[in-house]
Amino acid sequence: MDSRVPITVITGFLGSGKTTLVNRILTENHGKRIAIIENEFGEVGVDDGLVVETKEEVFEMNNGCICCTVRGDLIRILHKLLKRKNKFDAILIETTGLADPAPVAQTFFVDKDLKVCGCVGGASVRLDAILTVVDAKHIRHHLDKEVEEGAENEAVEQVAFADRLLLNKIDLVSEEEKQDVRQRLKAINGAAEIIECAQARCDLDRVLGIRAFDLERILAEEPQFLEDSEHTHSSDVTSVGIEAEGELDGERVQGWLSALLREKGADIFRSKGILCLAGSYEKYVFQGVHMLMSLASTADGVGRPWAPVEKRLNRLVFIGRNLDRQRLNASFRACLVAARAA
Ligand SMILES: Nc1nc2c(ncn2[C@@H]2O[C@H](COP(=O)(O)OP(=O)(O)OP(=O)(O)O)[C@@H](O)[C@H]2O)c(=O)[nH]1
Asked: 287 alpha carbon to ligand 1 midpoint, in Å?
């Protein structure tokens, strides 16, 4: 019997539905002990507030990008997990929306530390599959994005490297658009099965424990895969994080966010935040993907409520191109009740 712990890498562009899939796996009654390793892009982390309350263990890695600077952290976390007496049945790694999955996968095959400790070869873990979640509405825009010479188009890399493609958000596109996206995906990666879904609702047997990662296929397509090579992200995508204590005027902040995304949504790929609205004990979760925006509260079953002693800290992050840090900060702060009274 194979006693190695299967690792599933969940990748996909910003806002495609990775956390939605993780939440879905966590709430499904599968009887497995799962550890989740989360890596988030952006100056201010908010995903800790977006992942459902769970008995499973969630490890945050927010000091850099998993495919570049924090591979060491990933290895350390894996060693820690593997030393446990009560071993996990599965490990999920959610990458940032801008990660290249290749160097993450490579970690399990070429890293000296993993080899020394016998996790590979010594057979403690195995890479089960790379799942790439695709936003059916926005993916074409990102696949078409031109990048500077020498840099990678992360959306293309994520599709190319997938063992399974979860074509998510099919509720947002017509049949014609969906077929067009399917063709685009097939042209980049003809080998990966495409699973269509909305809200990442898919049969988990088709995505977990599937033994789909095939080193031979990768080596046939990318002979240098096992060589530790440099890669460069496109440098025009940046993030602006905002942290501010205090209560917000609900109407004002909603008006500000809708106007901002309406005007700048082509450049703001992703926005999200945890908000404290005046007169409410609920924690509000704001989610934006380009121009689409939603605001839900813990009363709708999203996130975790404010704890009685918790500091009412608003946390937001904007990820995209041409972000005006000063303007975003000033216009957000103008939505605080205190700013209005001043
Ligand atoms: N309409 C629609 N919205 C969806 C679907 N799946 C997820 N969303 C929404 O899309 C937004 C982004 O979803 P997430 O799961 O946070 O995406 P993500 O890939 O984890 O985002 P990042 O970690 O920021 O890259 C949220 O507002 C979700 O509720 C879907 O199938 N249809």
From this structure: 8
Q: Between β-strands 238-245 and 34-39, what pairing exists: parallel, antiparallel or unpaired?
A: unpaired
pTM over 0.90: no
* ipTM field: 0.99
Nearest CA to ligand 1 atom 11: 15
Rounded to the nearest 5 degrees, what angle is found at the Cα of 274, between the Cα atoms of 273 and 277? 120
Between β-strands 5-11 and 125-135, what pairing exists: parallel, antiparallel or unpaired?
parallel
- Amino acid 199: pLDDT: 96
Distance from the Cα of residue 75 to its chain's centroid: 19
Cβ 52 under 6 angstroms from ligand 1 = no
323 or 305, higher pLDDT: 323
How far does CA 111 lie from the centroid of its chain? 23
Contact 25, 34 (CB under 8 A): yes
Ligand 1 site-directed mutation target among 11, 19, 292, most atoms within 8 Å of CB = 19
pLDDT digits (tens, 9 = 90+) for 167-192: 999 999 999 999 999 999 999 999 99
Candidate from 20, 37, 52, 131 with most ligand 1 atoms within 8 A of CB, to mutate: 20
| Domains of the chain from N-terminus onward | 5-221 (3.40.50.300), 238-341 (3.30.1220.10)
Q: Which of 312, 318, 317 is nearest to 336 (CA)?
A: 312
Provide CB contacts within 8 A for 167, sequence distance 6+: 134, 136, 178, 181, 182, 185, 194, 195, 196, 197
The answer, yes or no, to whether any atom of ligand 1 lies below 6 A from the CB of 45, is no
DSSP class of 235: T
Q: Which atom of ligand 1 is nearest to the CA of 272?
A: 24
